[in-house]
Amino acid sequence: MGKRPATYADLEELPPNMVGEIITGELYASLRPAIPHTRAASRLGGVLMGPFDLGTNGPGGWVILDEPELHLGSDVLVPDLAGWRSERFPEATRTAALTLAPDWACEVLSPSTEARDRSSKLPVYAREGIQYVWLVDPDVHTLEVFRLVGTNYTLLATHAGEALVRAEPFDAIEFKLKLLWGK
Fold first, then answer.
1. Helix or strand run (H / E) with residue 126
2. Among candidates 110, 64, 57, which has minimal Cα distance to 85?
3. Lower CB density within 10 Å: C or N end of the chain?
4. Helix (H) and strand (E) counts in the chain
5. What confidence score (pLDDT) does residue 1 get?
6. In this structure, are strands 26-31 and 97-98 parallel, antiparallel, or unpaired?
7. E-state strands within 17-170
8. CA distance 101 to 124
9. Percent of the chain residues topping a pLDDT of 70
10. Are 61 and 85 in contact, with CB atoms under 8 Å apart?
């Protein structure tokens, strides 16, 4: 007999200091991320929030959320950041989770989650048609920018260190990558 697929009840049983996801029927539980991870995600959200979500000194037109719970088919994923073009975002939603795939997702990598983010979550994001994925690595100070082409992601650019960055789909602004590293 095989292992039973994980259910939402399994996620609800996790202690509050854990982040849980279900990917292809398997439950993954991780401790809350370390401060460099959290800081990079928070700072990136701050860089994008004003110009894209609020329309301050930028084009607006996006809804950007921190750690949204996404119910995509039988998968439950929690990207560090996700964004929907405003015209697609379901404003009437009053639930804790969204079933509409975002247009952009960002994963901040950590040693304990990098393999899962790359090999398990990226295929789900591709299956759901998420057009852009960013992978941020606060340990090696990189930002990888991917665009969905057909059913697979193509790496558009890898930015490193203290680079000035213009990255799809937020290439209307330029930002200093070093802002994410807390220096």
1. helix 122-127
2. 64
3. N
4. 4, 13
5. 55
6. unpaired
7. 18-23, 26-31, 62-66, 69-72, 75-77, 81-85, 97-98, 104-108, 132-137, 142-149, 152-160, 164-165
8. 10
9. 98
10. yes
Could you tell me the CA-to-CA distances from 61 to 50, 58, 66, 102 in Å, in that order? 11, 9, 17, 13
Tokens of 44: 């990136």
End-to-end CA distance of the chain: 52
pTM for this structure?
A: 0.93
Q: Coil, strand, or helix at residue 7?
A: coil
Question: E strand or H helix at 176, and its extent?
Answer: strand 175-176
Report percent pLDDT > 90 for the chain: 83
Strands 104-108 and 132-137: parallel
Question: Do residues 169 and 103 touch, judged by C-beta distance below 8 A?
Answer: yes
Q: What is the pLDDT of residues 27-57, one digit of tens each?
A: 999 888 888 889 999 999 999 999 999 999 8
Contact 133, 125 (CB under 8 A): yes
Instruction: Round the average pLDDT of the chain to a whole number and report it.
Output: 93
